[in-house]
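FW: tagging you since you asked about this chain on Friday. Here's the raw sequence from the shared folder, copied in full. Didn't touch anything.
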Amino acid sequence: MSSRESPLLSLRQIRKSFGPTEVLHGIDLDIYAGEVVALLGENGAGKSTVSNVIAGTIAPSSGEMTWMGEPYAPANPRAAIDTGLGLIHQELHLLEHLSIAENVFVGRWPKRFGCVDRAHMERQAQAQLERLGLEISPSRLVRGLSTANQQLIEIAKALALDAKLLILDEPTASLGGAETELLFDQIEQLKADGVGIIYISHRLEEIKKISDRVVVMRDGDKVQEFDSGNVPVRTIVESMVGRSLDRMFPAIPHPSEECSFEVKNLTSALGMFEQVSFEVNKGEIFGIAGLVGAGRTELVRAMTGADPIKSGSIKLFGKDITPKTPQDSIRHGVVMVPEDRKLQGLIVDHSIADNVAYANFPAISRNGFLNHNMVNDFANTTTTRFGVKGQTFQRADELSGGNQQKVILAKWLAKDPKVVILDEPTRGIDVGARSSIYESIVALAEKGISVIVVSSDLEEVLGISNRVMVMAQGRMTGVLERGAANDVSVMELATR
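HL: got it, structure written out here
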């Protein structure tokens, strides 16, 4: 870490209001060259607002910033980038109709003789992809890439900026262990090169590995600062939530011995997995683990009719329900909360009430017509069951990640499903909201619903599951009972 005499970036008494509501209450923060500062807090604590102020996305209501000792007030993100700051957003901002290389250099395409120099651009993009271990052609379109690969491309964009300060907002939310370690290697190299880094993450175990300082925010205030990243997770969590946190994972119930959901010799028509077989009992929480690219998401998408199946079958209580479309799956009582909740789970610019209604028209229509009061009453009842914080007239994109996830759960649970599949249920969700999601999962199992949980967070899948199935390179490599499932046993199967 370089000298503390001159910070790269200083914030003094930064405040931000949206209408009458003040969301930042006088934030002071210094970032120095060659250090990683972890910026932590629950959803709604103000982390992203601070990041967006620094990155020029929004202007502060009051306060001052300096960059390398000079006044700093970027009018827009372009001005921040030109100054030497880069921001990787939690939500993906890639253009699917463009190539990977075009996305990495979007807005900064290298030119030669007045035209885009594609050869040079693709060489430079390839170099950034290789730094992250991503073996994929930079000329390929982004459309169709997995969420994990898209996240790596977002990171490659930031690396290509040669910025003096990077803000990484949940960069590992979609990444597995191997990809995360490669990113950490790059962070260490950036530190050695004198780059300052603001690191936002809900994966608190990461903080010990890479951060030099920890800043905790709560309700728009900076409430705690630790001079080392080696802080007990419990201490950080209690600072974030402002209370003692006794237990992260709730006690999970014992499932019935009755098999409710059976997958037999399922093979992807897209070549993503083959010959996968397993059974889930009534009231069981069944985890699916594996490294990125193992075929987990592709498997559950095929199980629910979103992707085509080449061969194999799916049975519900002994009846063949192998779906050809998502509608087939939903009709039989098998529903899925997808990995990308904003793109696939919600219509984010519509209200909470509308989003709940779209999955439940038969229950709230009368003679084929919708009644506005019935829609609102139905949405109120279903969202209250899950403790959604928000009014039903609010747009879904105004909610935190945890509350968006609860809205998706609420709309499907109103249909009384037999099987609920959750793909990365706590991606980008803070610790406090995670506990609430875990309690919701347990509540489903207690009602006799079979729950399948796909997660890149090994602690999560171990903590919430009765059994864990492990996948590697499109194959099922084993199923572990709760007592036998641990970090070592799962990783041994995941790397076969």
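FW: The chain has two domains: 9-241, 259-494.
HL: agreed, and The longest strand covers residues 21-31.
FW: great, closing this out.
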